[in-house]
Amino acid sequence: MDLKVIHECPQCGGEVELAETDRVLTCPFCGMRHILARGTARFILPHIKRQGRLIHVPYLRCKGAVFSCHLSGVAHRVVDTTVAAVSIAALPHTLGYRPQAMKMQYASDTLDTTYLKNTLTLAQAITLAESLHQTVTESAPPLHQEWIGETISLIYLPLIIDNDTVFDGVTGDALTTLTNNQDIFTPLALQSLDWQIKLLPTLCPNCGGDLRCEQESVVLLCSNCDTAWQESGGKLTAVVFETVAAKGEDAIHLPFWRLQADFAGIDLHSLADFIRLTNIPRAIQPEWEDNVLTFYCPAFKIRPKIFLRIASQLTAAQLPTTGTAQTPSRFASVSLESAEAEESIKLILASAAIAKRNILPKLPEITVTIKRNSLVFLPFFDNGYELCQEEMKVVINKQILELGKKL
Ligand SMILES: [Zn+2]
Ligand SMILES: [Zn+2]
Questions:
Q1: pTM, two decimal places
Q2: What is the mean pLDDT of residues 196-218?
Q3: If you measure from the C-alpha of residue 8 to the centroid of ligand 1, how many angstroms do you get, rounded to a whole number?
Q4: Can you name the residues that pair with 43 across neighbouring β-strands?
Q5: C-alpha 218 to ligand 1 mean position (Å)
Q6: CA nearest 325: which of 256, 245, 227, 246?
Q7: pLDDT at position 133, please?
């Protein structure tokens, strides 16, 4: 489901249409671009004109890939749902296709309405979504589970209460009648709202140059002074990055998070330990006992199965790569945050393991402490259909890469 949001351009006041996953707002009227600061996104569905008291009820929206590690390997599925985040029997359990059919707006404290509190955790929402969708689940609970690249937001459904009848504020249908005009909503009302949407101009904090980005970018690059930036706490902070030089023409650079971590609960320190544990068919060189293990995780969104394949292949390859902090001329934008990459380490380890039994049963006890995380752009050869990283033997279909932007 692809959701659309309408927001006013801070520069010219024009109505800009955004996709739910967009991180950069580009105004089609004045051309100004702004970075949307992170934080829980809250949207409202438009309501019909009808007399009565307006109430907005939260639905928790979850969209993303859930990875579950079982003894047999790593399973994944894509979840895309909205479930009621407050327990009122007369409400629809999910919003269904409603958000898709109409353009939403950011929820604001200027609207004369009562917003209800969200009383559902993400874990509860997933369980509920699965029971509603009757997803087949494995018999045993997973050894480890992680959401990667998820979009979590709150979508508010408008209700209109006229006398003692509660109407769906979108369709106008009567949902229920309140007994003795009892006010069941006020006790559930949210008390304080601090819902300002913060927008930052896409200008380099170092040199003032225009940053290079696309609508889904979470890291923005400055070609002028060769720096990279991400939004954090309403400010742009520098990201350490390097670019590995391409050998020939027709190269495009893809971004990866390169991570080093300390592990507890498993004997994993060096590259040699990694080869032994995973049982990847490679002869261990003596110097590998001292080589620090580096994990590679795609810094772009892509289908779960391919995400794991690329991460495992690059991590298993462990090729020494050195580059310089230089903005590549052609590159795919960074659409997956570094924190998401950090969460995927156990998944990469489980997925790379040929000897599943050496690693999978240990997953619940393993703790990962990230020591280093930086961005690296690796060169891929573009043959028109596929992008190929020859040294690391990784091939990515261009169409799948393009489709990943919508995830
Ligand atoms: Zn504008
Ligand atoms: Zn700059």
A1: 0.88
A2: 93
A3: 8
A4: 106, 155
A5: 21
A6: 227
A7: 55
